[in-house]
Structure formats: C-alpha cells, structure tokens
Design brief:
Blueprint (H helix, E strand, L loop, with lengths): L20 E6 L1 H12 L3 E4 L8 H12 L10 E3 L2 E3 L12 H21 L2 E6 L3 E5 L4 E2 L11 E5 L2 H18 L4 E6 L9 H18 L6 E3 L2 H9 L14 H15 L2 H18 L8 H21 L4
Helix pairs in contact: 2-3, 2-4, 4-5, 6-7, 8-9
Length: 314
C-alpha cells in the first residue's frame, strides 16, 4: 500500500548548470533555496533589499533596479533611533542615514547588473495581503513597526497580482530577453492573517501565477507549496512554530528542485563540491598528523580540479 501522494516532477527546459547566474527574490523560502545554491557554489544572489513577501514590493524593487532609481532622504524615515525604507526589509535599516542611502543605492546598482546578466530568476511569493501607508497611499514592503493605525490592510485581487507579475516579467525581459523566470509560492502559512485569510491569499497567488506562466516565454512554476502541503503534509516536517518547514522539509523540497531544474551532469559535480565542503568543515583530532596533512593535500587537489574545470572557488 502507498501511504503518500508523491509529486513526480519532470526535468524542465533551460536547466541550471555551473555557467548559470541565478537571482532570487521574495519570501524566506527564497532564502532557503539561495543558501542551498550558495553551498554548492553556484553563482547566485538573493534578496538585495531583504525578504519581501508581496508581489507589489518585489515589482517595485525590480522596477527601481531596472530604472536605476537613486534613493534620497525623501525615501527614508527615522524610527526608534534607526533609519528605515518602506521598500526594504528591516535587515537593511541602519543607525546612520547616509549608511542606509549608500546601501540602498549600491544594491540598486548591483541588482540592475544582475538582472541584465541572470540566466535564471526565482521569485517566491509569500502573501497577497498588503499594507498601504495612508500618508502617501503606497503599498509597503515592510512596516518597520510603524503604528498599525497608519496603514490600511488589503487583500490583492487575482487581477492585481496577475498585472504585477506581468509587469515584472515584461520589465525583466526588456533588458534580458533570454532569462528563465521561475515563480513559486512559499509553503509558509501566514497564520497571523487568519487561517481562512491565509488560504484565500495563497489561492490568489497561485491563480495569478498560473495566469502568466508560459513555457514558450520561459515563465515557469515550481510547486514548492504543493510539495509541502500535499506531498509531505505532516507536522513532523514543520519547525517548532508549526508554520515554517523544518530542515528535513527544506532538504526534501530542494531535492525536488534539483530534479526539475538542475541537469544530471551538474548534479554529479555538486557531489564533488559537497565532498570538499564537508572536508572544509572537518575538525581533526591532530592537525599536525601525517594523516591529516594527506587529507588536506587531497582536498586541495579536489578544489584545484573543480576550479580548473568549472571555475568553482572555495
């Protein structure tokens, strides 16, 4: 008897290899995948403005990066002795005003370059619920603990999300016509919005993504949401908060991502990279022993081989 409903993913076109340049935007799930890619030494960048959960915030970042917007004092504000920007996560906030502006503008410049050169862009949407700052009628990427009375909470319609994702795709393709864009929905439930409200939000995101996915135009969908909720669907795969996927779940979804998006030859190279990574993390009992010196020499040979063939640096 089969006690699981296992998703069977097929290899996609335009798969990732060690010549690929990968850029990720969106929720904390993007961070999880980015860490995996970085561990295996792929050329990857992630969330230049920190974690962003809603499509409007991601669209604004991409729009500003493509247009090389220059952030000024009018775009930031001070609260609780720190300077913040509504377009960015609080991780980007700074004590000094000029430091924040410098960081924002440096990231805009870097992201513009990455968008124009990327072979693959992964966009993870977390929620369709957004907060509109009443003072300037603008949807924010992060509220930075500004009093809630200064915002209106709204649920983006399917049509609004579809339009935003279409804008994102069109903007990126305007400077990088050959890029492959992979959309996914975060499996993390936003239960602070409410159980029913979270389900409605995810439904809007899923519907909108499927409205715009088009293999001919290199716009794809990866089912991380379905893998978590329909394949794993057991609380043993959740962290202590019973909301976020635990390490086992992240590893499993990563394996599914590999099946779909990383070609077989590259997967073999990844095994060699992992061998070196584990070797670098090894803590010897006796660093001066001949055995350990031989181990280090073998590790060096493996590193040199990976650099020679794939320009992989450790």
């Amino acid at each position: 008897m089969n006690f699981r409903t296992n998703l069977q993913l097929k290899p996609e076109r335009n798969q990732i290899d060690y010549d690929s340049k990968i850029l990720l935007f969106g929720s904390c799930f993007s961070e999880n995948i980015s860490k995996k890619l970085a561990y295996f030494k792929f050329n990857t960048g992630s969330n230049p403005f920190g974690i962003l959960f809603n499509p409007i915030a991601i669209e604004r970042l991409i729009t500003n990066a493509i247009n090389l917007k220059e952030y000024t004092e009018s775009d930031i504000f001070q609260l609780n002795e720190r300077w913040h920007c509504f377009d960015a996560h609080s991780d980007i906030s700074a004590i000094e005003k000029n430091e924040l502006l410098l960081n924002l503008n440096n990231e805009i410049s870097t992201t513009h370059k990455q968008l124009s050169e990327a072979s693959h862009i992964v966009i993870t949407l977390g929620t369709a619920w957004v907060y509109r700052f009443i003072e300037n009628d603008t949807i924010v990427g992060n509220c930075h603990k500004v009093p809630q009375k200064k915002f209106l909470k709204e649920l983006l319609s399917t049509q609004e999300i579809t339009a935003s994702l279409d804008n994102i795709s069109t903007l990126i393709k305007s400077i990088n016509s050959n890029v492959t864009i992979i959309f996914t929905v975060s499996p993390v439930r936003h239960l602070s919005d409410g159980f029913v409200e979270n389900a409605q939000s995810k439904a809007h995101l899923l519907t909108a993504i499927h409205e715009i996915t088009d293999i001919k135009n290199q716009l794809y969908y990866f089912p991380s949401f379905e893998i978590m909720l329909d394949d794993l669907r057991d609380y043993r795969f959740y962290a202590k908060d019973m909301i976020h996927p635990n390490e086992i779940a992240v590893d499993y979804i990563w394996e599914q991502f590999k099946k779909a998006w990383i070609n077989e030859n590259t997967a073999l190279v990844m095994k060699d990279v992992e061998t070196v990574q584990k070797g670098l993390a090894h803590k010897p009992f006796n660093p001066a022993s001949k055995q350990h010196q031989q181990f280090l020499n073998n590790l060096k040979l493996k590193k040199n081989k990976l650099f020679e063939h794939y320009q992989i640096q450790f």
